[in-house]
Amino acid sequence: MGDASNWPYGFANNRQPPTEKRVWAFAGRKLAGKETAARYVAMALGASETHTYSDILYDTFALWGFDRHMNSRAELIALSDFMRGLKGQEAMTNVLHERLRTGRGTDAIIDGLRLPPDVDRLIADFGRPNVTLVWIEASADNRFERACRRKDKKGEERMARAQFDAEEAASTEALLEQIRARCDVEIDNNAALDADGNPQAMWDQLDAMLAQRRAPRL
Fold first, then answer.
1. Where does the pLDDT of residue 157 fall: very low under 50, low under 70, confident under 90, or very high at 90 and above?
2. Could you tell me the pLDDT band of residue 3, with boundaries at 50, 70 and 90?
3. What's the mean pLDDT in 118-147?
4. Prediction pTM value
5. 210/86 Cα distance (integer angstroms)
6. How many helices (H) and strands (E) does the chain have?
7. CATH of domain 21-209
8. Nearest one of 125, 137, 112 to 187, comparing CA atoms
């Protein structure tokens, strides 16, 4: 983990976030539905805190004058690799954990765990009983179809299947199976949307997860 005296944001003297906070962390491949699942759980819990590693990247690009819609997925991956390469693998994790530490909510949502050490850090800081790891699963065909429909990231709606498959081999994507193996819950998001255009099948699974796992703390 490195020398804590070199960490930013005062982690050397105040590393531990509030122990009463419960963290719900979502992982999955691109376009699996992590963001939709995270938003639903945040709404169900009344959680005021939702954090993503991508937000750190978007915030960085915003400082350079680039709005969210101006950044492609490939550019986000490149910036993430650059930050971790320049300042160490925990560079972005330190920023996210500072946001968690200073957040006022009792439930915090993380959308998009990317690296196994990020899981280790969550467990070390909050304790295993207070961390729920959720994997969102969707097939490559379904995820590519979603990429062609949406315009969240620059050029995504024009992405060719070869480019989509190439991005699956990106540095962060390749480690996701290690995170999947450690998740507490796996949610299948391959079902078609309902008549109102909602992923009701996924929501039903998330409701069941919350009913089972939102038990009083010991």
1. low
2. very low
3. 93
4. 0.79
5. 39
6. 9, 5
7. 3.40.50.300
8. 137
Alpha helix locations (H) across 88-115? Answer: 91-102
6 token code pair: 């070199």
> What is the rounded distance in angstroms from the CA atom of residue 187 to the CA atom of residue 189?
6
- In degrees rounded to 5, what are phi and psi of residue 160? -80, 155
Q: Is 211 exposed, middle or buried (0-12, 13-18, 19+ CB in 10 A)?
A: exposed
- The whole-angstrom distance between residue 68's C-alpha and the CA centroid of its chain comes to 17
Q: Rounded to whole angstroms, how far apart are CA atoms 11 and 176? A: 27
List C-alpha distances in Å: 5 to 8, 9, 11, 94, 174. Answer: 8, 11, 8, 13, 31
CA dihedral sign of residues 171, 176, 177, 178: positive
Query: What is each CA distance from 29 to 40, 43, 195, 213, in whole angstroms?
Result: 18, 22, 26, 23
* Domain range summary for the chain, segments of one domain joined by +: 21-209
SS3 content of the chain, % helix, strand, coil (to 5): 50, 10, 35
Residue 203's identity, in one-letter code, is W
H helices of 15-115, in order, are 34-45, 53-63, 73-87, 91-102
